[in-house]
Amino acid sequence: MAIAAGADALGLVSHMPSGPGVIPEDRISEIAAYAPPPIATFLLTSLTNAGSIAEQHARCRTTTLQLVDTLPLVELRQLRTLLPGVKLVQVVHVQHAGSVDEAKSVAPYVDAILLDSGNQSLPVKELGGTGRVHDWRLSARIAASVSVPVFLAGGLSRQNVQDALATVAPFGLDVCSGVRENRALDQAKLEAFIRAAKSGG
Which of 19, 86, 102, 149 has the greatest number of C-beta atoms within 10 Å? Predict the structure, then answer.
C-alpha cells in the first residue's frame, strides 16, 4: 500500500516501550526482503547497545537503522564498525534548545538525523508515534546547522505538511499517526499525505 501510494521508504517498527505500529521481527524481515529497489527499509530499534543492534539487524536485514533512543557516541562508532554498509539514522527528540546541540554532536557519526517529538525522560519512554508536533523553529535551526540530511517527524498530516516543508526544509518526512485509522494504515490518508508532500498541496 505504501509503495503504491508513492512512499520512498518503509519504516518497520520493532519492539518499543510505547507507540503504535510494532510488528514482529520475522515480519520485518519478510517485508525488507520483499521491498524492491530503490525503496529503502528502515528498522526502528529502541536498543542502545551496538552489539545487540547488530544482532537485530542480522535478523531483520533492512537497508537502514533508525535509532529511536539516544546512543552514546562510543556505541555509534562501534555500530559503524560492525555494520559498515548499513545507513544509520539517529533520532533526536526535539524538546528544547539543547536538542540543537545534541543533533550537532551526533551528526558526524551518522548518515542522517530524524527530528521527532518523543520524550525519553518519562517513566515509559515515548520514542515515536506520539502524533505531536514539536517546535519546528528548533528543527529548522538543526537542519541549517548540520551537514547530514535531516528527516522531519512528529504530528505530520495532510493538513500541515506544506507548513512543515516550508518551515524546516527537511530532506524527507517520516509519518506514522497521521496516516493511521483504527490502529492501522489508512489508504486514503496515506495517499493524500504523500500527494500533498510531493505535489505542493
Answer: 19
